[in-house]
Design goal:
Number of helices: 4
Oligomer: single chain
Helix content: 25-40%
Length: 170
């Protein structure tokens, strides 16, 4: 004996059959939404991370700049030395209270971390300003290569061309 679909089920089966591709796309989209997002446990070499409140890492920035400048046509293997004005600093959250007598007090906001420990609340970490840059590379004697290197260092550090020196090295 052959089993027959009820009338309502036949209508649904016919309607679903004409929209099979649409339903397939919706099912694939729902499956993609359930996949884990792109967060990685260990960052790769090209994506350095700094812990909150960590200071600016000059050596890592110089190494990254050397890798990038070595890719400039005619530069060759580059060495970079950067100098800084001061160090990195944190801007802390502050609470300003006004007294009824017209006076005011300004205190740093702290957060309790349990067992009596207190930590300040940083709003942002300001990286230090660059003072100057020296780039040494085999192609430093060529005027066109020198201009490309000065423009690249200026774009990445914010330094003016008068504070960037490019020398030819061996």
């Amino acid at each position: 004996m052959k089993w027959k679909w009820p009338e309502a089920a036949r209508r649904w089966k016919g309607a679903l059959g004409s929209y099979s591709y649409v339903l397939l796309v919706i099912a694939v989209g729902a499956a993609l939404l359930l996949l884990p997002t792109g967060g990685r446990d260990s960052p790769g070499e090209d994506t350095p991370t700094q812990a909150e409140g960590a200071s600016f890492d000059l050596d890592a920035f110089e190494a990254k700049l050397e890798r990038v400048l070595s890719q400039v046509e005619g530069a060759g293997d580059t060495r970079v030395v950067l100098t800084l004005d001061g160090g990195s600093r944190q801007v802390l959250a502050r609470n300003q209270d006004r007294d009824s007598g017209g006076g005011s007090s300004n205190t740093v906001v702290t957060v309790g971390k349990g067992s009596g420990a207190q930590e300040v609340v940083p709003l942002q970490t300001v990286a230090p300003q660059f003072r100057g840059a020296l780039v040494v590379c085999p192609g430093g004697g060529d005027a066109a290569t020198r201009l490309k290197l000065i423009e690249a260092v200026s774009a990445l550090t914010g330094l003016g061309s008068d504070r960037i020196s490019v020398c030819q090295g061996g």
